[in-house]
Amino acid sequence: MIVFSRLFNRKRRKIVYLHDGADWALEWVAKGIAKHLHHNGCFDFRIATSLDKLAPGSIVHFGNRYDFFQHDPVMIGNRFRAVITWLHGQYNSEEFHDLFQRLKASIPYVAMIVTSCRESEIELVQAGIPKEKIVVIPLGVDLELFNAVERVNIRPIARGDLGFSDADFVVGSFQKDGSGWGDGMEPKFVKGPDILVQVLDELNKKIPNLKVLLTGPSRGYVKKELDSRGIRWIHRLVDRYQEMPVYYSALDAYLICSRVEGGPLSLPESWAMQVPLVSSRMGMPRDWIENGKNGFVYEATDIMEMAERLAAIAADRDSVRSIVETALADVRALDWGTIASQYVNEVYLKV
């Protein structure tokens, strides 16, 4: 529960969640928090795209770390109370090392860093970030939008519209896993598109009716590799996040093969829609999946094991009924109302 007693006797504090609008995962983190803070009336909370006209002393929550580094950290620290969301990254990797060094140098001007999983917390501490400035708050889900009851009604329509038959075994992958914002022919290593293709290739050898449903931009590499292996796929670019439950409704399983993640959002989304989840062990899946109880989790190198698990689900779809029911119960802890309370009590009231 949000601690309201601490709020009634103080002036409503201004919180600005800074978001550039380019990443809908980060956008929906902002909207998930905003929905519940506006409803409860705790803070003067709004979402903005720039620092223009912000009152000094405001809490500025940078939803994207790159937005923070576009500004002078000293100016930010002198004018505002800065909170940064830092979802993922490996300190010793060539891609992220310099970014961690910039964060470390900026720490005197940062009030709090929010990350979504223990793995990312460990990387931050190893980079020299004081643990007392880090809080772990997972990514959430809107359980009104992602509704397992509605899935039963939507499923036949969704599968029909997408061209799937009742006999097809449909595996979903809803992410951006190509570099840049073009066709995505160059794979983004951390997202594991090469692993995804390998798992689906092995699965295709085991079952006769595999179909793959892709959403998200920059999927060129995956589509090319699936074509080369004779695996049938459908790709849809989804303009509105509110449409995503329709695509989950069409699935028989969801597959995550990332090497590094802060989330992904597909974990709570799959759970909320009662879609069986098979995932590599990283990010939130490492923290939240109990193998064989609410999903299935493997090392990213366990190609055959992931394929065999998916084949077992295809052979007996009722075998995972208790698993998706447990996942549906567990995802209540990730409802945005609960997550917003964590932001208030563990971040905004403390900075």
Automatic annotation (TrEMBL):
<feature type="domain" description="Glycosyl transferase family 1">
    <location>
        <begin position="190"/>
        <end position="327"/>
    </location>
</feature>
<dbReference type="Pfam" id="PF00534">
    <property type="entry name" value="Glycos_transf_1"/>
</dbReference>
<protein>
    <submittedName>
        <fullName>Glycosyl transferase group 1</fullName>
    </submittedName>
</protein>
<dbReference type="GO" id="GO:0016757">
    <property type="term" value="F:glycosyltransferase activity"/>
</dbReference>
<keyword id="KW-0808">Transferase</keyword>
<dbReference type="InterPro" id="IPR001296">
    <property type="entry name" value="Glyco_trans_1"/>
</dbReference>
